[in-house]
Amino acid sequence: MDMEESSMKKLRQDSPPATAASLLTDDLILEVLSHLPARSVRRFKCVSTAWRDLIADPAHRKKLPQTLAGFLYNKYKPGGALSGHFASVSGGALPVDPSLHFLQPNKFKYIALEDTCNGLLLCACYNKETPDSDKDEYRHVVCNPATERWIELPPPPQALANRFYSTTRLAFDPAVSSHFHVLQFWQTISGVENCARGVDIFSSQTGAWIHRDSELFDKIKLFRRTRSVFFGGMLHLVGRLNTINVDKESALMVLIQVDMEGKAWKTIHLPIGSSFEAIGLSQGCLYYAGSTTQTHISKKNTVQATKITLWCLENHDSKEWVLKHSASINEPLGIIWVEFRVFAIHPDCNTVFLVPIGGDMLAYDMQHQKFVDILNLDKDNVRVYLPYVPLFSEALADADGQ
């Protein structure tokens, strides 16, 4: 029995729900709710009108867990500049200003979104509106859009002649520490493959970068545009084994784990038989979304059916994935073929978010096999959508911004 069910059962046993709720002080209610998942907090709004108002009060947001508010993304403006946008899950008022106006009055004119993690946002910031990335230097900035506080990171170690930075990711867990890490992976060209050679890691606690060589030297190629997950003190990324000694292409796909000191590098094979779509942390477990496409040819037409599979890594030690749900997308879409990508997995339920080419973002409930929401997207966007869960606590205590 989980905490939510135990709490509700006790209320029913001791006295009628309305009477039991009225005996609890606001501080006690908030203390109990602060230890529950966001989905459970939403359910407790139904206890009474007083509880609903208590949970909805903006003054209590710092204490209560938050859920997915939507997705931050960039859009190209005429001339090549970028603008910030937000696709809301609820369809209501925007929880933050996606333009990040609190950075622009300073020296940053061009802000490219790179990563989000538990309420913090990582950006690459230039002092020109249309920079030449090969010539103009940029700085990494970590900010909290909800509190408008931000930190400008010092430059990472100078890149050597034969290497290039391929992937930069943010690692932060407010339940463990108020400090964050930024991991900047670098690769070199080995034969025909770009192989991960090491990582530069910034710690907000020390304010400095450290360099670590990869224990998977010449064995792994990182995927630049895929999401990462910070879980259990390890950053999880998707990569590809640099080997031809496998029977299936999907057997090359692995989940790479790196600790915050860059000393521990591990791999977990992803489920074989499906193309990679997304990874995410959902309901306290690591999830993987894959897809398969089958072509059916008849005398009248050719039909391509796409199936999404949702897997859960229930035990990190065994490294075994458990299939939770599978669903054919074409039938509920009402079309025989559509090209799409799964970009994210909801942190509180078995819902995935996918974007057809040139279309809006769709939320699909894998458990009940139905589309549950449409998130409107601006055209000409960069097609990188960063999930955003508001963080109202005073993280970034030593921030540059006020």
Q: What would your notes on this structure say?
A:
It is a single chain. The chain has 402 residues and is mainly beta. It folds into three domains: 3-60, no CATH class; 68-270 and 384-402, no CATH class; 271-379. The protein is built from six helices and 24 strands. Strands 11, 12, 13, 14 and 15 form a five-stranded antiparallel β-sheet that branches. A hairpin with a 7-residue loop joins strand 7 (164-172) and strand 8 (180-190). It is globular and about 65 Å long. The two termini are 44 Å apart. Residues 24-64 form the F-box domain. This is F-box domain-containing protein. It holds the Pfam family F-box.
Question: Keywords, please?
Answer:
single chain, about 400 residues, mainly beta, five-stranded antiparallel beta sheet, 24 strands, about 45% strand
List the helices and strands and how they pair.
Blueprint: H1 3-14, H2 17-22, H3 26-33, H4 38-44, H5 49-56, E1 70-76, E2 82-88, E3 110-117, E4 120-126, E5 139-144, E6 149-152, E7 164-172, E8 180-190, E9 193-203, E10 208-213, E11 220-222, E12 229-231, E13 234-241, E14 253-259, E15 265-269, E16 275-282, E17 285-297, E18 302-315, E19 320-328, H6 330-333, E20 340-345, E21 351-356, E22 361-365, E23 370-375, E24 386-388
